[in-house]
Amino acid sequence: MAMLIVVLSVLIVRVWSKAVIVDTTSGRLSGTQADGVASFKGIRFAHPPVGDLRWEPPIPFVSSKIHNATSLGPSCVQQIPYGRQALFEELHNTTAVPENEDCLFLNVWAPALISGPLKPVIVWIYGGGLVLGTASDPEYDGTSFSKNQDVLFVTFNYRTNVFGFPTSQDLSAKRNNFGFLDQELALAWVQDNIAQFGGDKTKVTIMGQSAGSFSVSLAITRRNSTLAPPFRAAIMLSGFQVSTSPTLDFAEFDAFATAMGCNQTAGPLRLHCLRKVPACTIRNYTNGPNIGRFTYGVDGVTAYDDPLQRIRTGQFAQVPILLGNLQDDGTVFTYNTSISLPTFLKIQFGSHADLVPPNLVRALYPGLSDQQVIAAAERDIQFRCRAKLWSDAFVSSGIKSVYRYSYGAVFADLQPLPNLGVWHTSELPILFGTYNTSTATCREVELSRSLQTAFANFVKDPNGSPAPNWPPYEPGFLGIARNPTLAKIAYEGNVAPNDFINLVQPIATDEPCIVWDHFLDYRPSAYAAPGEYSRGTSSMVDNQIGMQDSPSGSLLRLQELG
After folding, report:
1. Long-range contacts (CB closer than 8 Å, 24 or more residues apart) made by 355-359
2. 59, 50, 303, 41: which is closest to 156 by C-alpha?
3. CATH number at residue 147
4. I need a labelling partner for 540 at 20 to 30 A (CA). Which of 24, 59, 132, 508 fits?
């Protein structure tokens, strides 16, 4: 009898019909089947975070009723930079998804015929600077991944901007990063329910891009070696937390409260007043002109101020990792800008900009115009050098399966604006297989298969090579390792499964990081105590990807370089 129970626990045989019913903690879900994939959309995993539950940790939703799971749920309320709605729609070739404060829904895609052992699972965390983004974006549809790679694919919403990261003194220090708590609850839901869809809860890989990748980095470093994570591997695309300065700033929320007519002293009465303000009124305010950005803070629970040091000292989820960035990650953030290079450096480093004179920066990127230098520096400061630091830290901590890449594919139909190159997020239609089939070239189709297969190989076996001849990453000394291990993807038009990567020494892309690392990888002299709430400053790109970093603390090290 015991053997029978074991067999039944690891084997599921289910033929999906048009009326697909699955029992979960969220109720009996009625999904749909199409093109070899069963999908379940708009699954409520938390009670609506509205009214008195606004600015509260998510409460798990439990039901035994039948729920229609055939339509995507609404987005959480978005904060789109003032005057940028049209640009966002043009960049992502999509119109806005309906928004609602009641938004904590998730989606599951699974192979339609489940037979044999439980299958690996990918859980996707979208980007958007922790101020916007949605699992209902058609670009994140999991059909292609599930059908072509025989894995389950999960996406979910989490609260962003002032709804998810208020940074308010009206709340306790440990109850401000609600968006991260939403993410944790979604991961817990997967652990409790994914077997019902044919997924193996012990073979979950979390994957994110931009602020979603940033969220993955936090999910890794908020754990330690004794706390088993709800995932066995992680994939990080162009988004990494490095050192965050522990400073305190409630000014944005205080200004918001005043604008909403809640003029009480910070505390329960003001919070009660703000919870009665309609969500649409709040959205109108946060999407108005001259409004700052609400984002996460260091609380010693969901976010720490020096994640690299936590990795180096073993205080992290010690899992295999695949990570990288795009060749032109910086272009979309500096597109058509008229600022000068000195002004750019001032934005990045404030009063410490004189430590990196413009001519030194130009020397890091020879042959480029100042505007091209700005885009390249933005890429390196915010993405490439962070990927390097994370890869190096993981290897130094003893993780054997670390795979690092740099993506370089450019396709004409993925160029919404001139001269963007391999712009931030442009790899996602290729990875997800959600490219426009009417305009995609044969090279796009083949690269999509190659890239998707490589990522799926990592999901299925994080300790194996994602693609032929792709070895684990070696940092080496000053970027020169015994063997070339940094995978450059599709830089030369190579898209086939057996040759879409070229291996190079890390120094081939990382040389400018010799300078930038001294700003990114600093050691704060004082850390936030367990009950304190801390917040960092931000630069231009941080407003999009949810990063907050300060160069303070690295100054002596940089000055020592002369």
Report:
1. 355/551, 355/555, 355/558, 355/559, 356/515
2. 41
3. 3.40.50.1820
4. 508
Structural domains in the chain (count): 1
Which of 147, 195, 133, 139 is CA-nearest to residue 39?
Answer: 147
Q: What is the extent of the structural domain holding 286?
A: 1-209+247-297
Tell me the pLDDT of the chain averaged across its residues: 87
Residue 399 lies in a domain: no
CA 216, CA 212: separation in Å to the nearest integer?
6
Distance CA 547, CA 215 (A): 10
Q: How far apart are alpha carbons 116 and 13 in whole angstroms?
A: 7
Only one residue has tokens 């604008």, namely 259
Nearest to 233, CA basis, from 257, 202, 272, 274: 202
* Helix, strand, coil abundance in the chain, percent, nearest 5: 35, 15, 45
Length of the chain: 562
Residue showing tokens 């709430």: 533
Question: Residue 359 is which amino acid?
Answer: N
Residue with more model confidence, 90 or 427:
427
Q: Which residue has the higher pLDDT, 194 or 550?
A: 194
Side-chain-facing half-sphere of 387: CA atoms under 13 Å = 31
Beta bridge partners of 11: 117
* 39: pLDDT strictly greater than 70: yes
Query: What secondary structure does DSSP assign to 501-520, as a single string?
Result: EEEE-THHHHTTHHHHHHHH
Distance CA 404, CA 234 (A): 12
| pLDDT tens figures, 455-489 | 999 999 999 999 999 999 999 777 677 889 999 99
Give the SS3 label for residue 477: strand
What is the number of other CB atoms lying within 10 angstroms of the CB of residue 446?
A: 16
The CA distance from 286 to 459, in Å, is 38
CA-to-CA dists, residue 282 to 46, 66, 73, 256, 286, angstroms: 22, 33, 21, 9, 6
CB neighbours of residue 273 within 10 Å: 16
Helices 279-286, 251-259: inter-axial angle, 10-degree rounding:
120
Helix spans in 260-369 (H): 268-275, 279-286, 307-312, 331-334, 341-349, 358-364
Instruction: Dig out the tokens for 464 from the structure.
Output: 């194996």
Rg (CA), the chain: 23
- State how far Cα 140 lies from the chain centre: 13
Q: Is residue 111 part of a domain?
A: yes
**pLDDT value for 80:** 87
The pLDDT assigned to 30 comes to 97
Q: Which range scores top for mean pLDDT: 163-177, 366-380, 531-545?
A: 366-380
DSSP, res 247? B
Domain membership of residue 416 (yes or no) is: no
Which pLDDT tens digit goes with each residue over 432-456?
999 999 999 999 999 999 999 999 9
